[in-house]
Specification:
Blueprint (H helix, E strand, L loop, with lengths): L5 H29 L1 H84 L4 E9 L7 E4 L12 E3 L4 E8 L4 E5 L10 E5 L5 E6 L6 E4 L12 E4 L11 E9 L8 E6 L8 E5 L20
Antiparallel strand pairs: 1-2, 1-12, 2-5, 3-4, 3-12, 4-5, 6-7, 6-9, 7-8, 8-11, 9-10, 10-11
Length: 298
C-alpha cells in the first residue's frame, strides 16, 4: 500500500469528520426509533437545548444586566431621598444653632443690664424693644414691660452704654420711651456735667443726626472733643453718674457767648434691643417754711 502524504490526509480530514458526524446522527436516530416516542422526545430536547444554549446564555446575561441596571436606579433614588433628608436635617440644625447663639447673645446682654443692679442703687426692670417710631431717627421706642411690671411715667431708661430716654406713656404690658435725641423732650432735658471741667449745662435732643446738644456752658470753660458728659441728678429724672455721651464737636464761645457743644450719646440708640428701666424716684423737694418778701416760690 502506498503511504498517503500528509497533504492528502489534511485534504480528506473534513470528509472523514463529516462522515463520522453523519454516522453519529444515524446511530442516534436508530436508537431513538427503537426506544419509542419517549426517547425521541429526549433526543429532540437534547438537540434543542444544545442548539439553544448559546442564545440562553446571551439572554440570561442580558436579563441579569437589566435587573442590575434597574436595581442600580432604585439605589440611586434611595440615596437621593436619603441625601435630601440629611440636607433638611442639617438646615434644621443650623437654624437651631443660630437660635441658640441669638439666645446666648440676648442672655449676655440681659446679664449686662442686670449687672447695673449690682453696680447701682436702684431696682431695674429688664425689657425688650418691640417697636420703633417710623420717623427717620426713631425718637420713640416701645418696650414689652409696662405698669404691671412696676414701670411708671418719667422713669429713666438706660443700657450698659448710658442713658436712653424716659418713660412717657404706659399700659399694663408696654411702655413708650422718648429718646434723649428727641428735640420735643424739653421737659426731659438732662442737666449734664462735663467730666473734665465739671461745667454744667442743659442737654437736649437735636432731632436729627442722632446727636444731642449741650447748652448754656460758659464760653470761658475749656471744652474739647472727647470730653465725656454724665448726669448730675438735678433734672429730677436721671440719677447722678450715668453716662450721657462724648463731645464730638465744639463751636467755641466767648465771655458773653456760651459754647455750642454737640454730643454723641454713648448708648447705641439706633441698635436698641434690650434696655433697663430704673425704678428711680428723685428725692422729694421740701417746701421752704420761710421766704423773703416779694419772692415768689418756685
Amino acid at each position: 500500500m502506498v503511504a498517503r502524504s500528509e497533504k492528502e490526509i489534511r485534504q480528506r480530514a473534513p470528509l472523514w469528520l463529516g462522515g463520522i458526524l453523519f454516522a453519529s446522527l444515524a446511530l442516534m436516530s436508530l436508537d431513538a426509533h427503537e426506544n419509542g416516542d419517549a426517547t425521541k422526545q429526549r433526543v429532540i430536547r437534547s438537540w434543542a437545548q444544545a442548539l439553544a444554549s448559546p442564545f440562553q446564555r446571551v439572554t440570561s446575561g442580558a436579563g441579569s444586566t437589566g435587573v442590575g441596571f434597574f436595581r442600580y436606579l432604585g439605589n440611586l433614588r434611595n440615596a437621593a431621598a436619603e441625601n435630601e433628608g440629611l440636607k433638611q436635617r442639617v438646615e434644621e440644625m443650623e437654624i437651631e444653632l443660630r437660635n441658640a447663639r441669638e439666645t446666648k447673645d440676648e442672655n449676655e446682654r440681659l446679664k449686662g443690664l442686670l449687672g447695673l443692679k449690682d453696680e447701682g442703687k436702684y431696682e431695674l426692670v429688664a425689657a425688650r424693644v418691640i417697636a420703633r417710631d417710623p420717623s427717620l431717627w426713631f425718637d420713640t421706642v416701645t418696650i414689652n414691660r409696662g405698669s404691671s411690671s412696676g414701670v411708671e411715667l418719667n422713669m429713666p431708661v438706660v443700657t450698659q452704654g448710658g442713658i436712653v430716654g424716659r418713660v412717657v406713656a404706659t399700659s399694663p404690658w408696654t411702655a413708650q420711651i422718648m429718646l434723649i435725641t428727641d428735640e420735643k423732650a424739653a421737659a426731659g432735658a438732662v442737666v449734664g456735667q462735663l467730666g473734665e471741667s465739671n461745667a454744667l449745662g442743659s442737654v437736649k435732643g437735636l432731632g436729627e443726626g442722632g446727636l444731642v446738644e449741650m447748652r448754656y456752658v460758659s464760653g470761658l470753660e475749656e471744652v474739647k472733643t472727647g470730653d465725656y458728659v454724665v448726669t448730675t441728678g438735678q433734672d429730677g429724672i436721671y440719677p447722678p453718674g450715668l453716662n450721657v455721651g462724648a463731645v464730638i464737636d465744639v463751636k467755641h464761645g466767648s465771655a458773653t457767648q456760651p459754647h455750642v457743644i454737640h454730643i454723641k450719646p454713648s448708648a447705641r440708640l439706633d441698635e436698641l434691643e434690650e434696655v433697663a428701666v430704673l425704678k428711680y424716684h428723685p428725692p422729694q423737694r421740701t417746701e421752704p417754711d420761710q421766704v423773703l418778701p416779694n419772692v415768689k416760690k418756685q
